[in-house]
């Protein structure tokens, strides 16, 4: 298990989004598509905000 400590929720959201984007892009490169399931709730808002700004081909997700 990897444990990460961030200065605040924005930094944590950005780090999580970067990890998700890397995994999505790797799956798209390998398989041509990717699947993603996300939880809802206010604790996820910073990650969502960061994720939509990253270069991901959403038509393949």
Could you walk me through the main structural features you see in this protein, from its secondary elements to its overall organization?
The protein has one domain (9-60). It has two helices and no strands. It is globular and about 35 Å long. It has 61 residues and is an all-alpha fold.
Short summary of the structure?
By secondary structure, this protein is an all-alpha fold.
Q: What is the topological layout?
A:
Blueprint: H1 9-31, H2 45-51
Helix pairs in contact: 1-2
Indicate how many domains the architecture comprises: 1
Structural class: mainly alpha
Uncertain stretches of 5 or more adjacent residues = none
Number of separate strands: 0
Strand content: under 5%
- What Rg, in angstroms, do the CA atoms define? 12 Å
Task: Characterize the overall form.
Answer: globular
Q: Could you tell me how far the N terminus lies from the C terminus, measured between alpha carbons in angstroms?
A: 26 Å
Largest pleated sheet: none
Features of the shown structure:
61 residues, mainly alpha, 2 helices, 0% strand, globular
């Amino acid at each position: 298990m990897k444990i990460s400590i961030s200065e605040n929720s924005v930094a944590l959201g950005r780090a999580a989004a970067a990890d998700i984007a890397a995994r999505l892009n790797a799956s798209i490169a390998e398989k041509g598509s990717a699947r993603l399931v996300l939880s809802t709730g206010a604790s996820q808002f910073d990650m969502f905000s960061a994720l939509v700004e990253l270069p991901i081909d959403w038509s393949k997700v």
